[in-house]
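Structure tokens please, single chain.
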Amino acid sequence: MIVAGDEASLYLQATHQAVWHPRGLTPVIKLHPGRENSHFYGALNLHTGQEVVMRSPVMNAETSALFLHKLLTAFPDQPILLLWDRAPWHQGVEITTLLKANPRLEIFFFPTAAPDLNPQEHVWKAARGAVSHNHTYIKLDPLAKKFEVYLETTTFPCPLLEQYGYLQLCMMFK
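Here you go.
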């Protein structure tokens, strides 16, 4: 199983996106003045386009290890190759310990400052466009729940997979 992983933060403060609206009527989007947020760990199955997702209040090595455990549970009988960036919370004793205890999980790190190589970035972009741009939620929890449900129920095929040969890689490890 080959998966591409990453993390994203969702803010209650809405981001803007162009929308169609009747001529002469300016759309009104109320912005929340705070910076409340929720973090999401996500991993895209490069073969099926399915997403494994976990919401978290923080991003640190301990939480990253919990997410890796969730990946191992999601694919219980398969070796897993995780393509991951070099975020500081992807390193530490918790990660090292988990990897030693689970040799079927291997991590391949993307080059530094190369988010365009990570297919998971396209998942975040699609989810933000569908859920959090121009939203009208006044509480973070319902927005975060809708974001999470969208990630769990949507398949994310991506032409980037073919562009960089990920599909051939998936077939080799099938």
